Amino acid sequence: MPKAATKRRALVCLAMILVAALYLANTRAAQQKEDVMVTSNALGRPGGTLTLAVRSDPKTLNPVLAVDETTREIIDCMNADLIHINRETQQPEAALAKSWSISHDGETYTLHIRRGLRFSDGQPLTADDVVFSFQLYLDEKIDSPQRDLLMVGGKPISVEKIDDYTVRFHLAQPYAAAERLFDGLAILPKHLLESAYKAGTFAQSWGVSAAPDQFAGLGPFRLKEYVPGQRIVLERNPYYWKVDGTGRRLPYIDTLVFLFVPSEDAQVIRFQAGDTDLLSRFSAADFSVLQREQAAKGYQLEDLGSGLEYNFLFFNLNNLDGKNLPAITRKQSWFRDVRFRQAVSAAIDRDGIVRLVYEGRATPLWSQVTPGNKLWLNTALVQPAQSLEHARELLRGASFSWSSSGALLDPSRQPVEFSILTSSSNAERTKMATLIQDDLSKLGMNVHIVPLDFQSMVARLLNSFDYEAAIMGLASGDVDPTSDMNVWLSNGGTHLWNLTESKPATAWEAEINQLMNEQLVTLNYGQRKLLYDRVQQIVADELPVICLASPHVLVGASRRVGNFHPSILEPSALWNIDELYVH
Amino acid sequence: MKYLARRLAYAVLLLGTISIFSFALLQWAPGNFFDSMRLDPHVSAQTVNAMRARYGANGPFVVCYAGWIRSLVKGDMGYSFAYGTAAGPLLWTRARNTLVLTASGTLLAWLLALPLGIWSAANKGTWGEKICGAATSSLMTIPDLLLSLILLLLAVRTGWFPTGGMISSGAANASFWSEIADIVRHLILPVAALTVSILPMLVRHIRSAMIDALESPFIRAARGHGIPRRRLLFVYALRAASNPLITLFGFSIAGMLSASLIVEVVLSWPGLGPLMVQSILARDVYVVIGIVMLSSVFLVAGNLVADVLLFVTDPRIRVE
After folding, report:
1. Pick from B31, B155, B267: CB nearest A455
2. pLDDT tens digit string along A476-513?
3. For the structural domain made of B97-283, what CATH number should be given?
4. What is the pTM of this model?
5. CATH code for residues A49-299+558-582
6. Which residue of A has its CA nearest to B272?
């Protein structure tokens, strides 16, 4: 080979190395300037499409107005919050805010926003966007469902801009879960939404029919296409603010497709057919079906244990004066007697419910906090097994008796007979009601099951109070007790068993009020835990709700999905969507 | 012309009555969209009440109905509480998809039912006809839901057909003909379900109408005159039988629409069906009323077409 050619080749190589080095240095510098967040996930492979099914179309793409779970799940892929709850550790961690500090009195939070970040349309993020976003969430005229979360001590939190990258939040009183407030509150682009807000048309902004170029967010994906009734397609956000250990910008996936598949059965079938890569919120029966094919098809199926959902039976303890419901009013004398509720609880075979309703994929419950909530579960609570003998003792103590045919009679010798409402669309709860009916028949109680469509049931529970007992389930979005304030405070909107209390109807409800309010302003976790342990103890003793079982969180992924680490907190399979990749 | 005007007036009156009844039923049905929001522990009762007032959900029946009529005139068809937008735009795309499905199903069902019905009538009493009769009777007993599930299972097990949707993700960017081919591929299963659901009924009606026609004196006379069998069947008898068949066409549209709601839900066809189920469960009343009205319009339009066809083919109606 001629010497000149060799020299030329060496020079070209050197030049290429220099260009590559310069490019890398430049990228690093840009990223440093950008204040990106470096994740610790296992390295993934960039590119590809991930497909999953959701039950319905998103109702809106406006994070301020979103209510339902499906809508929020899709919106969350396109947006980011200041402080985020890590679904794995269940603890708040830095997101768009790189760090934060809390004043000594616990009433002021100063957040430092990452510098150099950009929305998905390339426009920079500043403190103005943060202030504007909270202005939207707090505006009474917009009626954002998130507004209630931002009310502390009955007053809305206030926000002020300190400089371009610092904002300060003021609370009316110390608030234990203040950092958790920020989770899920998307920071929105002022440059795109301010004009609509000023014109009073914000409620119509970012509807599902808006064009993709009208949107911008700080999440890992941005809108590419929405086809009504069929799918919504998101594409990778090239300005996303997280990088992996090698400095590669996340997310790995190029395209994320949500198919709208209205029924659980059809979702499972499409997962089996390979049309979708992820599957969540499906029943234990479907889990068993998939498990049989797991080896052949290579599914990644995970039973994560109990989630945060707790199913319970409760009796109508509302004040029915003026409601003209004499039959229910008469039976309320039994329902209000704690010994009657304790007897019902003692007679229920929770293990049977777990075995027969959930095929073993649930956890029996004796209080409202599930074992999935590791931070707040009161492990000292007694978990008595089913005991018909104990139930009979309790009923005898409350002056109940039995007829010669074995029917239970109340103190006025009337037979004990009541009905349980369930939602007909929830097969598990209807099965639970059947098992409870059978258990209580052993005590001589005559129980009828009334399956109603969900809305009709809700109307009876919340408006007419025309029911005797009901089975319901609630699931807190977060592990923190503050997310259940409306359930446990006697004047709370979800205080289902008695929605008519202007002041606590019983001493134990007054104590729960006091404990819940105290834990809300106590900043020390240990002290809060003691307070909430006591709440759980009271609930387990007084049984305003008779907790039954918490279904396990079941999720699945196709074999081609990498970094699949589902969590019990929603969105179970998607919480680390920016780290997921496809083989 | 007068006949057409009269039928149109009837149609408008019918639609008005349907709207009042469906509005009243939904207003009086227990529960409403905002109640289930109250079960979210994060949302306070005050916020729910404010939303309820803003959307005018607290108003009396007459006020709500008048408001809906006004928005109907504007083309909005009311307001979807769930989507926070006018109901009309939500419905148009889905109505188009439902029309594509039901029109394809109706066309295919009639294309198959006509020759089968005529053949059955012409071969009455033969073994072949008896087997055909038994097959149609068996098919009639299969509920639409089960049929759709069987087809879905077939798609999963064989992988021959798409398991849902109307168009594949990548197909929208492909050429026009590739897109059409993709839609046709997605149509196979839902159209098959719809066709099978209505085909037995059509075949039996056509057979019966044709047997009546074939046994009429003028056909016997024509046969005596040595008119070829094929001409006798397809020209004389079919024309004589067309009167009840055209009426049947109107009914078949109604059957198709009700079957399509189930088929769409099970086979994930993006039509009005899944939206209707969702909206009924959520009590998104204006969307439900919009879907009921659109389905009624399709039905009334189908019957109107049948009436016009009858007018054209049957001179007795013209005289009346």
Report:
1. B31
2. 778 999 888 889 999 888 899 999 888 999 999 999 99
3. 1.10.3720.10
4. 0.84
5. 3.40.190.10
6. A229
